[in-house]
Automatic annotation (TrEMBL):
Residues 1-60 form the HTH lysR-type domain. This is LysR family transcriptional regulator. It comes from Acinetobacter tianfuensis. The keyword Glycoprotein does not apply. Keywords: DNA-binding, Transcription, Transcription regulation. Belongs to the LysR transcriptional regulatory family. PROSITE patterns: HTH_LYSR. PANTHER family: HTH-TYPE TRANSCRIPTIONAL REGULATOR (PTHR30126), LYSR FAMILY TRANSCRIPTIONAL REGULATOR (PTHR30126:SF91). GO terms for molecular function: DNA-binding transcription factor activity; transcription cis-regulatory region binding. Pfam families: HTH_1, LysR_substrate. It comes from the Bacteria. The keyword DNA-binding applies.
């Protein structure tokens, strides 16, 4: 079978217009070329597609079934060609982006929507991970970009664009012991179990760790679930509470006597400067830079 795109287009047009001559006019061909193409298609498929009775061809049952699939097949062929052209011009076969789990509430999907609008055929994969693991993914090439908190010390191969601020707050369930105090001393914090979001690699010390006794998890959703069970206190995104009124009613923001209970961090889009950037990666970097220049 030697099926090609032009044959499919002619077949589809004949089915839509109802005649060889009308299809020929629409496609800018002579009727004999359309008739010959359909005849060759019937030979290739070993199927009769049209009954040539009277002035106009009558589609067979087989033709009607194949017509339902023809349009989708033509769309997929065009998408395949567009993808091939994009790849030849430097578009990545896929783009992997890791979002630090506490930042899932920061409206990061606007960047993905911009990528999709510009490169509809691009395969985009989104991962979530603790900060330390996200940084590892950039280093080993598992991800091309990371949406992550500012770092106290940059790796030599890191490059970044500052995006926004994100607030984290220490919380406990309202029935938890610590939540009953108007202010907490450092000693109380030190002795109470903390639920920390940390790397899966247990050799890495968690960030924002204050308690001697702590449990670790790799995402803030499971941390929140544990906190709600009165099993400890922890630090969660303020936006997580703002978006969920029920959660806001169940959790108490803890007030530390020696320092502010609200931790504000810059959020960065980070990439490895030593990795070769493809078309989509360069577009994302330029897009974010242009957003930063717009007046607030």
């Amino acid at each position: 079978m030697n099926l090609n795109q032009e044959q499919l287009m002619i077949f589809k047009t004949v089915m839509e217009t109802g005649s060889f001559s009308a299809a020929a006019r629409q496609l800018g061909k002579v009727p004999s070329a359309v008739s010959m193409s359909i005849a060759n298609l019937e030979i290739d498929l070993n199927l009769r597609l049209f009954e040539r009775i009277g002035r106009e061809p009558v589609p067979t049952a087989h033709a009607k079934i194949l017509f339902e699939k023809a349009e989708q097949l033509l769309i997929e062929m065009n998408q395949w060609k567009q993808l091939a052209r994009s790849l030849s011009s430097g578009l990545e076969s896929e783009l992997n982006i890791v979002v630090v789990s506490e930042l899932l509430h920061t409206h990061w999907t606007e960047y993905i929507a911009a990528l999709e609008a510009q490169f509809p055929s691009l395969q985009i994969n989104i991962f979530t991970a603790p900060q330390e693991d996200a940084q590892k993914m950039l280093v080993n090439g598992t991800a091309q970009f990371a949406l992550m908190f500012e770092r106290e010390q940059l790796e030599s191969n890191e490059q970044f664009i500052e995006l926004k601020r994100q607030a984290l707050v220490p919380v406990a369930a309202k029935t938890y012991g610590l939540a009953q105090f108007a202010q907490l001393s450092f000693e109380q914090i030190l002795q109470s179990r903390q639920i920390v979001v940390a790397s899966r690699d247990r050799s890495i010390q968690p960030e924002l760790l204050y308690s001697k006794n702590y449990w670790r998890t790799d995402n803030h959703h499971s941390a929140c679930a544990i906190i709600l069970q009165n099993l400890g206190w922890g630090v969660l995104p303020a936006e997580m509470l703002n978006e969920n009124p029920l959660l806001e009613q169940q959790l108490q923001i803890l007030n530390f006597s020696d320092f502010t209970p609200k931790f504000e961090y810059f959020v960065d889009l980070v990439w490895n400067r030593e990795s070769l950037q493809g078309t989509a990666a360069r577009f994302l970097i330029d897009y974010v830079r242009k957003l930063r220049k717009k007046p607030v």
